[in-house]
Amino acid sequence: MAERERLICAAGDLAEQGKGVRFELERHGRSQPAFVIRFDDMPRAFLNQCGHVPVELDWQEGEFFDVSRHYLICTTHGALYHPATGACVGGRCAGRGLIPLPVVERNGHVYLLEPALMENQ
Ligand code: FES
Q: Whose CA is nearest to atom 1 of ligand 1?
């Protein structure tokens, strides 16, 4: 299957452990919110859906890191996720991590890899 890539943002839009970029994707026949951040100099993307209750993580648009900038945080009840994998590392997510999405950085841009996304559905 040929890979389809969808442009998400410019690579320069993502500072290390800085503000994220929100985007939408089609999943299970409907539009769902997602986001991408930069961690360990790589873009990392996830569905914007907490493992505790399926609400979006950010109250202030694009702010996904906690005050330490080491973890992603759900602002509703404070669940913490590892920014490299989306694994739950504390709080009410109780072992239920974020759903990762495949992204690649190339030629100064960040792309979502759509066939791999379909396999995760
Ligand atoms: S909804 Fe995210 S921690 Fe409760």
A: 53
Residue found by looking up tokens 């991408």 in the block: 36
Q: Which CATH class is domain 5-119?
A: mainly beta
For residue 86, which of 50, 111, 119, 56 has the smallest C-alpha distance? 50
In 7-92, which ranges are continuous DSSP H helix? none
Residue 72 is classified by DSSP as E
In one letter, which amino acid is 69? R
pLDDT higher than 90, residue 118: no
According to the model, what pLDDT value does residue 114 have?
A: 80
Mutation choice for ligand 1 from 71, 76, 80, CB with most ligand atoms inside 8 A: 76
Q: Domain ranges in the chain?
A: 5-119
> 99-111: per-residue pLDDT in tens?
999 999 999 999 9
